[in-house]
Amino acid sequence: MTGPEQVGGATDDDAAELIAQLKELAGADPADVRQVVAEVLAALDRAAGGALREHLPETIRVDAGLDTAAPARP
Fold first, then answer.
1. Looking at residue 28, what DSSP letter applies?
2. Which residues of 4-30 are buried (b: 16+ CB within 10 A; e: fewer)?
3. Count of domains in the chain?
4. How far apart are CA 58 and CA 67, in angstroms?
5. Which domain of life does this protein belong to (predicted)?
């Protein structure tokens, strides 16, 4: 697996810029920002064939619609 430092030379500055862009895109409302991030993560998970979801915390999986909870038993 490729680490963040190996993907296109990503740095903390790159991450800060991405965060700023997401905030600008979504507006000042934190719920809007969370929704945009959830949509981005869901798209990345689809592109990765579902491999991303297992690495995300449960709350993020739920927000992104990636929660793979087992069906309830009778």
1. S
2. eeeeeeeeeeeeeeeeeeeeeebeeee
3. 1
4. 7
5. Bacteria
> What is the per-residue pLDDT across 51-73, written as a single tens digit (0 to 9) for each?
988 888 888 888 888 886 534 43
Q: What is the pLDDT of residue 2?
A: 46
**Hey, CA dihedral for 49, 50, 54, 56, is it positive or negative?**
positive
Q: Is 33 among the domain residues?
A: yes
User: Higher confidence at residue 5 or residue 43?
Assistant: 43
Around Cβ 65, how many Cβ atoms within 10 Å? 12
Q: Is residue 47 situated within a structural domain?
A: yes
